[in-house]
Specification:
mainly alpha; 3 helices; 2 strands; globular
Amino acid sequence: MSKLLTVAEAADLLAVKPATIRRWILLRQLATVKLGRCVRIRPSEIDRLVAEGERPAA
């Protein structure tokens, strides 16, 4: 099992604010794992999000 990321760790990894990560979660653009009251993000979800945003060079 890979390490699950907190919202703050995911934000640091993508160089965005934690509020941006929370907004993506609310808009269901980023899947999460709920552990009680804790929200965690799989690293594979971060990879998927980055891959979806990639655009090939012209």
